[in-house]
């Protein structure tokens, strides 16, 4: 079975990185689509088996009706249909928030403390899995807690039927799964060092707003300390996810005759 990875990208410097590497290692074809540039999205019902990977972006789910972001509403409606037809999907950061909204959840500003204040969760920090990695194939080869890169100021509220998979100190909803075909990660494990530098340069105002004037250099120092491990463990997680979503794609192709295998 020839299985394609459909990467939905929203920013030039926020590409698939380690996901593309892992897909190549698994012999999977990969194509990138840019809905912000008018690229058409595949038919959620009749297109060949594929895994959609919806990446992050600086725009927010609740900004989709703003001028020049109308394409985001179109993407959300497409994702709703893709998910409704149990097509496999991985959402990362903005992609996870879009997936949550498409499945019946919502997105709101991340606020902490009393009185509550807006928090930008940005930088390297730990997430903790809500299940024992020895008992869950999705976490095989991972520790109970792992370092990841955070880069967001919103939180997703889980849709009905979603299973919470991971949390951080400041944001409970760090990873979730719906059935066996939909997985959302609020955090980043796909990023490499060159991409991190691109993110810092492109989003410097956001970084300084979250971490102060020393924020860019702090991220660089933390990458020197944690980056190699985050990439190594990130590859493990990505392979686990692709394994599970590939199985879901094959199962769908077997039970639905209108989904054609190449």
Question: What pattern of helices and strands is seen along the backbone?
Answer: EHEEHEHEEEEEEEEEHHH
The average pLDDT value, as a whole number, equals 95
Rounded radius of gyration (Å): 18 Å
Number of strand elements:
13
Low-confidence stretches: none
Helix content: 25-40%
What's the end-to-end separation, in Å? Answer: 7 Å
**Separate helix tally:** 6
Structure, explained:
This protein has 6 helices and 13 strands. It has helices at 18-25, 70-84, 94-102, 193-202, 204-211, 215-255, and strands at residues 4-8, 29-33, 50-54, 89-92, 106-109, 111-112, 117-118, 121-129, 145-152, 154-157, 163-167, 175-178, 182-185. It has a 9-stranded mixed sheet, with helices on both faces. Strand 12 and strand 13 form a beta hairpin. The longest helix is centred in the C-terminal third of the chain and has 41 residues, at 215-255. The mean pLDDT is 95.
